[in-house]
Design brief:
This protein has about 30 residues and is mainly α. It is built from two helices and no strands. The termini are far apart.
């Protein structure tokens, strides 16, 4: 789902995409 990967969908709609996004953020700012 592209929308999930881009973060356009709410976290509840795509938990897996949200977790991946959080990991990317942690890698950038962590």
């Amino acid at each position: 789902h592209i929308q999930c990967r881009t973060g356009q969908q709410p976290l509840q709609a795509c938990p897996e995409g949200a977790l991946q996004k959080l990991r990317l953020i942690e890698e950038r700012y962590g």
